[in-house]
Write a structure and sequence with these properties.
The chain is built from 21 helices and no strands. It is mainly α.
Length: 425
């Protein structure tokens, strides 16, 4: 039964985002640069960079072109295949919006919608959204399988709990097909988290550093915190997961390669001698202070409002479980610093095999990352999406720990899975 439930959940992980693409194929302001760049790369070509939209507006915030160039490659090199897939998507879109009272069906009838899809380049957008959705869904599936494998000696259900906590989150399922900068790097981030959980710490730091330099500079903050906690061994009674030397080598190699890649590709895209777009945008925000024009928020708003929005009604269980994980982890730290203790004297809430403790390391890195971000007056819920997979993972681990304490039967566990599913409706 559990295996069948997991298969159904994994299938839904791919179906739901694709359905949301067809129900809401629009773009918003946050992805406007990437959507325009996608159009120009496919329809104009990289050899005519002077004709791109971003060259006509020099004051536009600088963003990397790497993900959009990658996503546009199929539409450039296999256009007929992409066109056939796009035509199939358009038929699905028309059918769904004729059957359901969606916002599109209120604006256009069947004939008008067909003309709109034919006369515009929205089919290109649909195809690349589909590609983005599939890549993102595979990254989440890979993370789920890594969690399952890495906790296999201590739990048989943790992958199902992770699926039930993560897959139904409405913000995540909607935006993983969108070209919002925070979500464009999410597949790579899930890949890095998977490597860290499985114990491949050095390579995970390479990927985290690459994401921070090329995509989102705030990930460098998370990488720094993660490195300090991992190399200090503060959560493992003085036994580090890796040495500072290994961490520095990994970060230095990744930084050099990332900067070289930006200097070659993004510098050409922005028609300048040298640029790292993420650093450029961050420096403008810090020294110009223009973000204050959008309003400043209180220090606590990430924890008291934005997390509550992401974990919408019906998903509060994840927030409560991570709160319990925080309390028990804090109790473990208090015992470690209070006196000499052994591992078997601590609360075993981290279900990773062999007591490596990568859940705890990622969790505390997330906590400090969000606390540092909270100092900045500019706050957006999208800065938290990097932490959601870790919170769902530690929530799953905590849920397993609770069940182990009360020693419930397999039948009750299956009943709990059904009840969690029903709670979302």
């Amino acid at each position: 039964m559990i295996r069948n439930i997991q298969i159904i959940l994994d299938i839904l992980l791919f179906i739901v985002p694709i359905s949301l693409i067809l129900l809401a194929p629009y773009s918003n302001y946050d992805e406007s640069f990437n959507v325009n760049a996608l159009h120009d790369i496919i329809n104009i070509g990289l050899d005519k960079i002077d004709s791109f939209d971003h060259m006509k507006y020099p004051d536009m915030p600088k963003k990397t072109s790497l993900p959009i160039i990658f996503l546009s490659l199929p539409a450039i090199y296999i256009p007929e295949t992409c066109k056939n897939i796009s035509n199939f998507l358009s038929l699905l879109l028309i059918s769904i919006n004729n059957l359901l009272p969606t916002s599109i069906s209120k604006l256009y009838n069947k004939d008008e919608l067909s003309i709109l899809l034919t006369d515009t380049k929205i089919l290109q957008l649909l195809f690349v959204r589909l590609l983005m959705s599939i890549i993102s869904s595979f990254s989440i599936l890979s993370l789920r399988k890594t969690i399952d494998h890495s906790c296999s000696q201590n739990s048989k259900f943790i992958g199902v709990w992770f699926s039930l906590f993560y897959y139904p989150l409405p913000h995540m399922m909607f935006y993983i097909s969108r070209f919002v900068p925070h979500f464009v790097c999410l597949p790579l981030l899930n890949f890095a988290i998977s490597m860290f959980i499985s114990g491949d710490i050095s390579r995970s730091l390479i990927v985290f550093t690459f994401i921070g330099i090329v995509f989102r500079v705030e990930i460098l903050l998370f990488t720094a915190v993660l490195t300090i906690i991992s190399a200090s061994g503060i959560l493992r009674i003085g036994k580090p997961i890796l040495s500072f030397r290994e961490a520095c080598v990994s970060i230095t190699i990744s930084a050099a390669l990332s900067i070289f890649l930006c200097s070659r590709i993004d510098s050409y895209f922005w028609n300048t001698s040298f640029i790292i777009p993420t650093f450029k945008s961050a420096l403008v925000d810090i020294f110009d202070g223009s973000y204050s024009n959008w309003g400043l928020n209180d220090f606590h708003i990430y924890f008291t409002e934005y997390y509550m929005k992401i974990f919408a009604p019906g998903f509060e269980i994840v927030y409560l479980l991570t709160g319990l994980f925080l309390i028990l982890s804090f109790c473990n730290l208090k015992r470690i610093f209070g006196k000499n203790v052994k591992h078997n004297e601590l609360y075993n809430i981290d279900y990773i095999n062999y007591g490596v403790g990568t859940f705890s390391t990622l969790f505390w890195s997330n906590i400090f990352y969000v606390l540092v971000l909270s100092v900045n007056g500019k706050k957006e819920w999208k800065f938290l999406i990097y932490t959601i997979s870790v919170l769902c993972a530690v929530g799953s681990s905590t849920f397993e720990w609770i069940q182990s304490r009360i020693e419930i039967s397999k039948f009750i566990k299956k009943l709990l899975i059904v009840l969690v599913i029903l709670s979302y409706f």
